[in-house]
Amino acid sequence: MRALWMTGVLSVLASGCSFISAAGLDECETSADCGSDRVCTPEKLCLPLPLGCGTVYGSQSPDAIPIGGLFPVHSGTGVGAPIDESDEQALNAAVLAVEQINQRSSGGKQFALYYCDTGNDVARAQRQAEWLVKEKKVPAMITAGSSQTLQVAQAVSIAANVVTMSYSATSPEVTDLPDKNGGPVGFVWRTSSSDAIQGSVIANLVRNDARFGAPKKVGILYVNDPYGQGLFNIVSERLDVAPKVENEGDSYTRQGDVKAALDTLNQFDPDLTVLVGFASDVTNILTEAATRPNLQRSVHKWLFSDSVKDVAVLANGTASAQAQGFYGTAPAQGTGQAFRAFQSSFKDRFNKDPSAYAYTSNAYDAMYLLALGAAYSQGTSGAVTGPKLAEGLTKVSSATNNPVQLTSSSFTSLAAELAAGRSVNVDGASGALDFNNDTGEAPSPVELWQVSGNNFLTIETIPAPKTTP
User: Fold this and answer.
1) pLDDT per residue over 284-333, tens digit each?
2) Could you give the domains of the chain?
3) Residue 21 has pLDDT above 50, yes or no
């Protein structure tokens, strides 16, 4: 439809008619001519913003530092698509960070967060990223999830020398992504640790922790995308090491029919199943599993991955009943003042506990880190650019400096140090941010949580394994 519509518009142009009168479109020289809800195209036409974009958080000043925010707040692009509560709260965490940073400013500058709802659509996220880079000239973007982050990075941001900072991309594929674009520093960073860590912890729990009943047969039911595939491969590989634990993987399409995968899983008859997926699918899986004889609570256990930690799952009575008492894993929240200050501010601002969702503290840290990188870029080069911002990120984990809790109160002094070209060592709300400057990621401990009523209780924090597969 879009191609046909544009063909019609171009036909009007060829006929010599005015766009305004014949096609209902305004001509423009720049996007400033089109107002806040439209963009000027290369054909000098004002067209609507990319679907899902249009909201700006933070400063409305034309000289604000623009940061892109690609958040899958809705789990689909169709009318009535449900909200993904974990990513909605991650957006809130980033907004809170912007508000706190702008109360202080950085080098006299404030930040504008250009929010786009990707609707969990990778192609849509790519179009939004292209608009953010080309029209808004963002030096950096916050992204969610492995599929979206990989697509945006490979198709848009790396070639444009724009930093991609993901708060929830955990696929091991991100580690090996060639992201330097001929320069000395990579453009892809993440505040979430690789599933090489989470997968190893899951396998160790299954093998050695009595709470999981020493299962002889383990199913791995996973969403068929880079996140699910990566976690499946890590867990399965670890269970295949002698003494081998028999295991079988079954995949399903996100927002697709889960019945066939559950039928296969039921036939395998596992003692325990590792469930890797997102809230809407997990709700359907647990509801359907209640009708499968070999997946009943009396004979079968679940072990959930990080993305299941979403209160939307517990809002469904059947799914909640199925999940009660079972355990899950997720990157651990921080334990220092940075997390306590974040948790308190988040509760005050949004009346919710961020620890009830996965990756809220990671999204909060992501925005703060980009602001620190921007302070370094502005202070050392007089402008905020992707390459200099990325270089600044290599200065936040100096082992020769004492760790400083990254809070709203410490931001100004940390930004000043970086603006002067000096290194710092920050611990964030999500924990220690000891980045490997070559891969752009930091190892983190793993939280073991348990479903209890309408809540997720943190049971313990498990250190990251010293070696991962």
Assistant:
1) 999 999 999 999 999 999 999 999 999 999 999 999 999 999 999 998 88
2) 19-48 (no CATH), 195-331+445-462 (3.40.50.2300)
3) no
Q: What is the mean pLDDT of the chain?
A: 92
Distance from chain centroid for Cα 234: 20
User: What CA–CA distances, in Å, run from 386 to 27, 66, 285, 294?
Assistant: 31, 11, 42, 52
CA distance 322 to 310: 15
pLDDT band at 6 (very low <50, low <70, confident <90, very high): very low
Global pTM exceeds 0.70: yes
For 43, 304, 455, the CA distances from 354, given in Å and listed in that order, are 45, 19, 12
**Which tokens sit at 227?**
């996140």
Residue type, 309: K
As beta bridge partners, residue 450 has 327, 457
- 425 within 8 A of 397, measured Cβ to Cβ: yes
Dist CA 219 CA 206 (whole Å): 11
Sole residue written with tokens 């957006």: 91
461 versus 465: which is more confidently predicted?
461
Q: Looking at the predicted structure, is the pLDDT value of residue 24 above 80?
A: no
Share of the chain above pLDDT 70, in %: 93
Task: Output the CA–CA distances (angstroms, integers) from residue 408 to 366, 383, 436, in the order listed.
Answer: 14, 23, 24
Residue pLDDT, tens place only, 236-259: 999 999 999 999 999 999 999 999
